[in-house]
Design goal:
- The complex is a heterodimer.
- By secondary structure, chain A is mainly α.
- The longest helix of chain A is centred in the middle third of the chain and has 39 residues.
- Helix content of chain B is about 75%, strand content about 0%.
- The two termini of chain B are about 20 Å apart.
- The chains are: A mainly alpha, B mainly alpha.
- Chains A and B meet through helix 1, helix 3, helix 4, helix 5 and helix 6 of A and helix 2, helix 3, helix 4, helix 5 and helix 6 of B.
Chain lengths: ~180, ~200
């Protein structure tokens, strides 16, 4: 179902706001996207919404591309372009301004405290993200594969794509 | 040289990218390797292969990208590009990371429906997902080396790490509140440990 131009304008404006709210990534505003796209406007189905996220995660590149898939499902390439621009523009602008502000004041005690204080949290978030992703799926083989991959990345210089491909082959053979 | 080893920066010294074009292709290459998240690949390419950033710089940039809205990897691309070549570099890095993956994801979306139910495809996706989770965990362990030079000291860093992990992974608290609450405590502690620059006491660790 293709929306009317006014609906597009409303959607564009809504995603501009969501962009500024998406601290931690576009995934954090997913519930609100679902509310608008599936519930309020009925642009895509529940199934399409879930497939968009799965497709973006299985494809190379940033996960935010799920927004493009949803736009594409709703109204083809134009929809993909409109929604991607809306979700990227405000946050990117803010990031550049804030980064320059901080870089120009990097000797300030407050800026140094921010960097030092946030570092352990950022590092813990890596482990937490991997943890959440791996315990969502049941089965010990899955966990074993995750643990082995983590160890290899940490301790060796094996190529990332080799690991991903090995996981894909094991999965396709039905080992997991 | 003992003076250098006293500094004990665990990462190797860095080089600059030669042009915005090089940024574009580097970010393009790292995005194409990033299945299920680009951060792990970004760390490997930017710190280890290209040597544009030290581990510490990567963590610092990521911290800013993490607390600002927007996709973390996109924010990292913007900030890295901006640092070397200003706005031109920022746009080159972001475009490099988004363009080809955007085409790919739309192509996949177009053909996905036919193969989603195929057991081998579903299995392969599951296997790749398991490895992708491992890549993220392993990268976290690797980056933990950057904490050795933290002004907070290792025990405090470890405590903050444990709290952040418990809050996000075990208690499943919203990321925003964890960043704000734990971030405030941790940054305040770091601020107390950092002596004002005017004072001559050089006790940094």
């Amino acid at each position: 179902m293709t929306p009317a131009p006014l609906d597009w304008l409303a959607l564009f404006a809504h995603f501009l706001v969501l962009s500024l709210l998406s601290i931690g990534g576009a995934i954090t505003v997913l519930p609100d996207m679902h509310r608008v796209l599936v519930g309020q406007m009925g642009l895509i189905s529940d199934q399409q919404f879930n497939a968009a996220i799965a497709i973006a995660q299985a494809s190379p590149g940033p996960n935010v591309l799920f927004v493009a898939v949803m736009g594409y499902q709703a109204a083809g390439l134009v929809g993909a372009a409109i929604m991607m621009i809306a979700i990227m523009l405000p946050s990117s602008t803010l990031t550049l301004i804030a980064a320059r502000w901080g870089q120009a004041r990097r000797e300030w005690r407050g800026i140094q405290a921010f960097k030092a204080g946030m570092a352990p949290i950022v590092i813990a978030l890596f482990v937490a993200t991997g943890w959440i992703l791996s315990v969502e799926t049941p089965g010990w083989r899955h966990l074993l594969l995750t643990a082995v991959a983590a160890l290899l990345i940490w301790r060796t210089r094996v190529h990332l794509l080799v690991l991903i491909a090995a996981g894909g082959v094991l999965g396709a053979m039905g080992w997991i | 040289m003992p003076a250098v080893s006293l500094m004990s920066n665990p990462s190797a010294p860095t080089v600059r990218p030669s042009s915005a074009k090089e940024l574009f292709f580097a970010f393009n290459a790292l995005a194409l390797q990033g299945f299920g998240g680009v951060l792990a690949v970004a760390q490997r390419v930017l710190c280890e292969q290209r040597r544009w950033l030290t581990k510490e710089e990567f963590v610092e940039i990521l911290a800013v990208g993490q607390v600002l809205p927007g996709p973390n990897v996109c924010n990292v691309a913007l900030m890295v590009g901006d640092r070397f070549f200003g706005l031109r570099g920022a746009l080159a890095a972001l475009a490099g990371m988004m363009t080809v993956p955007l085409v790919i994801v739309l192509l996949v979306a177009a053909v996905y429906a036919q193969y989603a139910m195929h057991p081998a495809v579903a299995g392969a996706l599951k296997g790749m997902g398991a490895v992708a989770a491992g890549l993220i965990v392993g990268t976290g362990f690797k980056l933990a080396a950057a904490l050795r030079v933290s002004p907070m000291g290792l025990p405090a860093c470890a405590a903050v790490c444990a709290c952040a992990f418990a809050a996000v992974a075990l208690l499943r608290w919203p990321l925003l509140w964890v960043l704000v609450a734990l971030g405030c405590v941790s940054c305040f502690y770091a601020w107390r440990r950092l002596r004002p620059r005017a004072l001559p006491t050089a006790e940094t660790r």
